[in-house]
Amino acid sequence: MIHLNDVKKRFRRPDGGWFDAVSDTSLSVSAGEIFGLIGFSGAGKSTLLRLINLLERPDAGAVIVDGQDLTQLSGAELRRARQNIGMVFQQFNLLANRTVAENVAFPLEIAGWKREAIRQRVAECLEIVGLTDRAGHYPAQLSGGQKQRVGIARALAPRPHVILADEPTSALDPKTTQSILECLRDINARFGVTIVIVTHEMGVIRSICHRAALLDAGRVVEVINVEAGRVDARSDLARSLLEAA
Amino acid sequence: MEPITFASALANLSMMAPEIWQAVKETALMLSIGLGAALFVGGPLGIVLYLTQPGQLFAHRGFNAVLGWFVNLVRSFPFIILLVSLGPLTRILVGSTIGPVAAAVPLSFAAIPYFARLVEQTLREIPRGVIEAAEAMGASPLQIITKVLINEARAGLISSLTILTISFLSYSAVAGVVGGGGIGDLAIRYGYYRFQTDVMVGMVLLLVVIVQIIQFIGNRLASRLDKR
Predict the structure, then answer these.
(1) Angstroms from A121 CA to nearest CA on chain B
(2) Nearest CA in chain A to B132
(3) Are strands A85-89 and A162-166 parallel, antiparallel or unpaired?
(4) Where are the domains of chain A?
(5) What stretches pass through the bilayer (chain B) (predicted)?
(6) Which chain A residues are within 8 Å of B152, Cβ to Cβ?
(7) What is the CATH number of domain A2-84+161-244?
(8) Which of A35-49, A112-126, B210-224 has the lowest mean pLDDT?
């Protein structure tokens, strides 16, 4: 489903030097999988995630999603490809002047859906995340967990094959975190959406991921399997992340 | 000269009612043209200023710097100098340098860069992440401008327009110098040059009332549109 082939991304530092956020990394995520990206701050996990929908364009390498190399697409083709890749953010990034229903409708308007189809799909998605009764509210009237549910409904609306989640629970308390993770797991199980989730908490990996990549200094140190909440890892990094959790 | 009483002032002003009404219409005409130009030329200019900033959708340091410099250049002119120096251009555009339509030319010239800066500043308050979310959903630049930037900044944009309207109500008084007419001009011609203090006070009071009304409407509209 997702293949990153030898991708590389460096940023200009304020002092004029270069910072290698991601260096020569390859990664494959299978269809229907929940895949975690974990590491300490500055390990390059968010950058790696943002390479998947080309919010960051790699300096080298290929980004293949659904059989398409996104780096080779024109502007319009990339926009169409992105409609197939939902994204959920740590800070929710909802439109403050749109209601919950209008926020969920937003990606569908962009994709040119008909009004009636939008209305139906919005109702469906709000039902899935359990926010039907908040359809007419504005984001400012919601709790953090509710805002993130709107974010998930919005990402899910255009029936994407992939959802990218950038620290989706890091701004939430532990109880809300669990309910959001369950929501994501539910979506994965019911609709087979491939989910890539960035986190710095091993608990998140344990509770919903099938596999995860451990990142350090812009490289994948180890790809681990998670089974029934047990993490099978060998590297020192994995051990220190487990201890931090 | 007779002393002014409240009754005499009132009688005087009511006798001048047709001229006052004419002046109100002239002011309204000057303002509408100036604000229209600000909205339809200054607005897009402000959006371009914002989008070409470093880190934005069409980041282009050089273009942004040149455009910003040009905007500052026009904004540096004292309005009265803009007014007289644009005479030849006004003659080409309007065919005359006298009257409210002619005065609207320099007014527009001053209003466009002023509003552009206000728009640029207002748009800066939109969180970068919201624009990024729209990009991630596959929104085109035009969709981002219309559905995200303008809609998210709408309350701030109304407040900016309110500020602009009130500033230019006062600028329009200066336009009387070149025969632009309007309320401010009436105050100067009758009140100042002809020593009819009651007319001057009456016109200033009229302007005070108009400013209060504009600010009231602007505030109400902005707070109704703001869902943040």
Answers:
(1) 16
(2) A55
(3) parallel
(4) 2-84+161-244, 95-159
(5) 32-51, 63-86, 92-116, 157-179, 199-218
(6) 95-97
(7) 3.40.50.300
(8) A35-49
When pLDDT is averaged across residues B202-223 and rounded to a whole number, the result is 94
Beta carbons of B135 and A95 less than 8 Å apart: no
- pLDDT tens-digit profile of A110-127? 999 999 999 999 999 999
Give B115's pLDDT tier (boundaries 50, 70, 90): very high
For chain B, say whether A91 makes contact (Cβ under 8 Å). yes
Distance CA A46, CA A4 (A): 14
The minimum CA-CA distance between B58 and chain A, rounded to whole Å, is: 13
Q: What's the pLDDT score for residue B113?
A: 97
Pairing between β-strand A34-38 and β-strand A211-216 as defined by DSSP bridges: parallel
Cross-chain Cβ contact A140/B127 below 8 Å: no
What CA–CA distances, in Å, run from B5 to B2, B14, B16, B118, B122? 9, 14, 17, 44, 48
For B4, residues 6+ apart whose C-beta sits below 8 A from its C-beta are: B197, B198
Share of chain A above pLDDT 70, in %: 96
**B158: closest CA of chain A, how far (Å):** 14
Tell me, what's the ipTM? 0.91
Top-confidence range, A228-242, B88-102, B150-164, B167-181: B150-164
| pLDDT of res. A108 | 97
Q: Which fold is adopted by the domain B6-225?
A: MetI-like fold (1.10.3720)
Per the CB < 8 A criterion, the answer to whether A46 and A198 are in contact is: yes
Q: Using CB atoms within 10 A of its CB, is residue A30 exposed (0-12), middle (13-18) or buried (19+)?
A: exposed
Q: For chain B, what are the domain ranges?
A: 6-225
Distance, C-alpha B94 to centroid of its chain: 20
